[in-house]
Structure formats: structure tokens, C-alpha cells
């Protein structure tokens, strides 16, 4: 298997890091954290102009038609820049689910607006604040004539409070159904709150909320939902990887700039050993992130080995994230706790990445169940 980046992938990686290094600095990150929820974002429109918001949307629907490996490059750059824009929620999770809609339909209009940066999307799929269960359980979709009505609750929906359109996974007559809901629909209550890293999630309550369109139902909807969730899991690993790599760069500079007893901190052997351990953890996370990107679609198709690989990747990346983030704080001492200094913000980003799409404990439990299943059969 050739793991080298293609020429096109190298161009994507270069454009991602060029943009974030010039237009998305830490000072602007602090400004964005103080921005009111739902305020217009020039960065979001710029990402639309760069084509990132339609990265994995088929070309026939106005996107770039790329896959999880290219998504890894984008999200790695976003993690390194502490990006708070809803790239994962809108571009990676929800936008591909609107592909294939009839021209002129509400879904097609929503997709065009999202790709161009004039709107954002969210995928509402989780119903519990613990565990990792991609398929919905209790939210119901009832068809009344030509209208679908939703009843139930979704939790921790990334970008759920600000999204202009929601893609909601529910249980319908034929099994799983994916429904498009206007963010201003009747019967929809959205309670948003900021997470530790500055991004926002929301709990959603549906009370006979009308859906604008049914995107898919039955086995087709289940396959689409699983692909979105597993690609999102792989993208979260990449987000953590980018944050780890930038944390290492900040620590390296700090150890060379700060002195103690006339010598730079980098000359202390105990700190050298800590830094090398952090490097090893980040490299381990990189290999597992690449594995997740390569295996995401196979996992969605039902490959048990691929799902095990994704669980291992999320577990390993989560452990590396907490180790690198925690050690970065320790290397900085009191400076690591200062709000105006970046390293604490990277630690918060890594904690959120660890918790998203199932924590270490969640995936460890799923892996243990998978190992125990053959013995109990």
C-alpha cells in the first residue's frame, strides 16, 4: 500500500496550512471565542470559497468529490489552528447526506448554501451523552400524508444551535430515516452551550416537528448514517492530531526560549525525556489516524475488522491526546494555565476530541465486547 500523498493531496495540505497560518492566528482565535453565538463569520465564507465546505460532496452536486484521506488533511490543519468553525458538523457529517437531491428541492438549495458558506448544517444522531451508538433509538418519525413529523430528543449536536438546517436520524416505519429539518421549524427547541474548546453543541427537542424532506429511509439511510458517523470519527482523530502537533511545536519553542540557572530548559535531560515521550505518542496517533481514514468506509459497510480498527484508533488517539496535552501543561508550569497563552486552549481542544464520538472507556468497552463475542457464541 502506497501511503505517500498524491500531488492533489499535497496541494490540499499546502492550501489548508497556508490559510490557517495566515488568516487564523491565535489572537483571532481569542476574538472568535468572545464573538456572540450565530454572528456572521468571514472565515466560514472564505472556507466556502476554498471549496472545503463541499470537500466530500460529489462533483455532480457542486463539491470536490474527495474522501476520508483528504478530510484528514483538512481536519489536521483545523486542529492545529484551533478552528471553531463547524467544519466537522457541516462539511464532513451533514453535507454529503444532502447529495443527490432533486434540482430545485429544499435539500438541493440547502446544500448549495452550505457549500458556498452562506449557511451551515448539523447532523443530529446522538441520543445519549455517554457511549458510542451510531444508530438512533427513540426519536420517532411519523408520516402523515406528505409530511413527516418528528418527536424525540437529540443531545450534544455539534453546531446544533446555530445550524440553518438539521439532518435528523430517526426511527420510521421502514427503519432508519434521515430527515431534513429547517432550523426555524415549529416544535423545535434548541438549547445551545459552548464546549471547553470554544465550539458549540446543543440539545434538541422535537415535538411534532415537521421535516422539510426525507433524504433516505430503510437500509440506504442506515448505510449513509454509518458512513457519516465513521468518517466523523476519523476526522476527529485528525483534529486531535493537528492539535497535538502544534502543541509540540509550542513546547519545543518554549523549552529553547526559557532559561533556568543560565541554561535553556531544553538542556535539562528530564524535560528532554518528557518531550520525546510526547513525540512518540503523537507519532502513534498519526499512524492510527491514517488507519481510521483508510478504514472508515469499510467500517460503515459492516466490516467487523474495520470497525475494530476504528475503535482502536479512537482509543489510541484519545490516550495520546490526553498525554500530550497534559505533559504540555506540565512543561509550561504556571504559564500553561494562562488564558492568554495558547497551550491551555490546545489542551481543551484535545479533551473535547477525546470525548467526541465515544470516549476511551466507551471504545475500550466495545472492543472488549467484540473479543468476548466469539467465546460466548
UniProtKB/TrEMBL annotation:
Q: Which SUPFAM superfamilies match?
A: Acyl-CoA dehydrogenase C-terminal domain-like, Acyl-CoA dehydrogenase NM domain-like
- Respond yes or no to whether keyword Oxidoreductase is given for this record: yes
* Entry keywords, A to Z: FAD, Flavoprotein, Oxidoreductase
Q: Does the keyword Flavoprotein apply?
A: yes
Q: Where would I find the Acyl-CoA dehydrogenase/oxidase C-terminal domain in this sequence?
A: 234-371
Question: Taxonomically, which superkingdom?
Answer: Bacteria
Q: Which cofactor does it need?
A: FAD
Which intervals hold domain Acyl-CoA oxidase/dehydrogenase middle?
A: 122-207
Pinpoint the Acyl-CoA dehydrogenase/oxidase N-terminal domain residues.
Answer: 6-99
Family indicated by similarity:
Belongs to the acyl-CoA dehydrogenase family.
The family database entries (PANTHER family) matched by this protein are listed as: ACYL-COA DEHYDROGENASE, ACYL-COA DEHYDROGENASE FADE28
Protein name as catalogued = Acyl-CoA dehydrogenase family protein
Amino acid at each position: 500500500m502506497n501511503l505517500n500523498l498524491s500531488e492533489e493531496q499535497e496541494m490540499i495540505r499546502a492550501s489548508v496550512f497556508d490559510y490557517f497560518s495566515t488568516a487564523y492566528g491565535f489572537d483571532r482565535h481569542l476574538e472568535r471565542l468572545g464573538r456572540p453565538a450565530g454572528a456572521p463569520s468571514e472565515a466560514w465564507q472564505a472556507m466556502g470559497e476554498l471549496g472545503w465546505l463541499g470537500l466530500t460532496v460529489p462533483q455532480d452536486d457542486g463539491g470536490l468529490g474527495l474522501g476520508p484521506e483528504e478530510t484528514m488533511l483538512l481536519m489536521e490543519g483545523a486542529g492545529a489552528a484551533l478552528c471553531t468553525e463547524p467544519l466537522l458538523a457541516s462539511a464532513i457529517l451533514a453535507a454529503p447526506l444532502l447529495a443527490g437531491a432533486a434540482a430545485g428541492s429544499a435539500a438541493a438549495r440547502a446544500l448549495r448554501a452550505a457549500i458556498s458558506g452562506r449557511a451551515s448544517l448539523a447532523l443530529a444522531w446522538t441520543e445519549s451523552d455517554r457511549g458510542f451508538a451510531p444508530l438512533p433509538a427513540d426519536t420517532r418519525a411519523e408520516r402523515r400524508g406528505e409530511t413527516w413529523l418528528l418527536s424525540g430528543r437529540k443531545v450534544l449536536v455539534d453546531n446544533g444551535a446555530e445550524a440553518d438546517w438539521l439532518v435528523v436520524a430517526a426511527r420510521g416505519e421502514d427503519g432508519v430515516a434521515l430527515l431534513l429539518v429547517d432550523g426555524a421549524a415549529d416544535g423545535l427547541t434548541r438549547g445551545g452551550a459552548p464546549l471547553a474548546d470554544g465550539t458549540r453543541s446543543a440539545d434538541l427537542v422535537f415535538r411534532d416537528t415537521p421535516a422539510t424532506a426525507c433524504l433516505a429511509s430503510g437500509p440506504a439511510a442506515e448505510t449513509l448514517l454509518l458512513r457519516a458517523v465513521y468518517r466523523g470519527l476519523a476526522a476527529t482523530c485528525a483534529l486531535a492530531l493537528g492539535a497535538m502537533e502544534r502543541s509540540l511545536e509550542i513546547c519545543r519553542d518554549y523549552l529553547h526560549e526559557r532559561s533556568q540557572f543560565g541554561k535553556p530548559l531544553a538542556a535539562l535531560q528530564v524535560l528532554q525525556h518528557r518531550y520525546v515521550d510526547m513525540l512518540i505518542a503523537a507519532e502513534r496517533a498519526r499512524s492510527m489516524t491514517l488507519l481510521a481514514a483508510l478504514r472508515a468506509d469499510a467500517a460503515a459497510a459492516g466490516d467487523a475488522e474495520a470497525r475494530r480498527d476504528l475503535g482502536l484508533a479512537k482509543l489510541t488517539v484519545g490516550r495520546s491526546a490526553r498525554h500530550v496535552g497534559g505533559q504540555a501543561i506540565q512543561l509550561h508550569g504556571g504559564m500553561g494555565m494562562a488564558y492568554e497563552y495558547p497551550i491551555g486552549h490546545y489542551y481543551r481542544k484535545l479533551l473535547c476530541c477525546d470525548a467526541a464520538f465515544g470516549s476511551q472507556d466507551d471504545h475500550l468497552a466495545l472492543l472488549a465486547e467484540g473479543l468476548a463475542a466469539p467465546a460466548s457464541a
